[in-house]
Amino acid sequence: MRVGILGGGFMGEAFLQGLLRADVASPVDIAVAEVSEGRRTLLSEYGIRLTSDLESATIGAELVLIALKPQDLENIDSLRGHLADDAVIVSIAAGVPLAELQQLTGHRAAVRVMPNLPAAIGEGAAAYLVAPEVTEEQRTRVRRVLDAVATVAIEVRDDEEVDLATALHGSGPGYIYLIIEAMIDAGVRLGMKRPDATALVLATVSGAARYAIERGLHPAELRNAVTSPGGTTAAGLAELESAGIRAAFDDAIDAAFQRARELAADDD
């Protein structure tokens, strides 16, 4: 697949790594447009074509990945008339509605994607919104790209569902890292060496997630399996429940959702 990536920052590089790792595209088939000379120097190790010009990166591209910051999207109107008729645009710019993406580029075959941080190691999650004009062949291209960076990719119905997904899985790693940090700090406070606490907590979080995926059971069943009556887990869970952890997470995700909607409204 011939791919043009507009923006060679962290997420642009994450998708680049995924494309190469999954053999979706070879280095000679990928062009990256990046204005920072320092970033272009770093990306040169991949053997791809590098440019500072957006239009140049899209020449012959079957899929154009827009990995620019939302405030930099005003420059993509230069793509009008330069994209191949059968090209599909994939945007990971946060808070930019699908219709606005189509209007800015003048290209109807467009897909809006919300990935998350673990995409950098091919373990991400993604939600995506597909314009009606996208063909089945173009859908296949998009899925190949998403499968290269995400273990789960969910198609949603509208921009509001993308905003909700942003609050859930887009911001989700931040919530998990806070839990990891708090557990490590508690272990250290009670006398454990920080490297030991860190190793145990990271293995616990990773293992618990993997176990839940493989078993496919409801989280409550998994929680009950590790909670003996009157035991240590029961005591810890009772404290979390009394502290209102469920309500706190509900409020956090709702706040993130409302903020995502506000950002989208600001772009309109």
Count of folded domains: 2
> How many strand segments?
8
Shape: elongated
CATH superfamily of the largest domain: NAD(P)-binding Rossmann-like Domain
Oligomeric composition of the shown chains: single chain
* Overall pLDDT: 96
Q: Report how far apart the termini are.
A: 33 Å
What's a concise summary of this model?
With 268 residues, this protein is of the alpha/beta class.
Give a description of the structure.
This protein is α/β, with parallel strands linked by helices. The chain folds into 2 domains: about 5-160, Rossmann fold (3-Layer(aba) Sandwich); about 170-265, ProC C-terminal domain-like fold (Orthogonal Bundle). About 50% of the residues lie in helices and about 15% in strands. The protein is built from 11 helices and 8 strands. The protein has helices at about 10-20, 35-45, 55-60, 100-105, 135-145, 160-170, 170-190, 195-215, 220-225, 230-240, 245-265; strands spanning about 5, 30-35, 50, 65, 90, 110-115, 125-130, 150-155. The chain has an 8-stranded mixed beta sheet with strand order 3-2-1-4-5-6-7-8, sandwiched between helices. Helix 4 links the parallel strand 5 (about 90) and strand 6. Helix 6 (about 160-170) packs across helix 11. The chain is elongated. The mean pLDDT is about 95.
What labels would you give this structure?
about 270 residues, alpha/beta, Rossmann fold, ProC C-terminal domain-like fold, 2 domains, eight-stranded mixed sheet, 8 strands
Layout of strands and helices, then pairs:
Elements: E1 3-6, H1 10-21, E2 30-33, H2 37-43, E3 49-51, H3 54-58, E4 63-66, E5 88-91, H4 98-105, E6 110-114, E7 124-130, H5 136-147, E8 150-155, H6 159-170, H7 172-189, H8 194-215, H9 219-225, H10 232-242, H11 245-267
Parallel strand pairs: 1-2, 1-4, 2-3, 4-5, 5-6, 7-8
Antiparallel strand pairs: 6-7
Helix pairs in contact: 6-11, 7-8
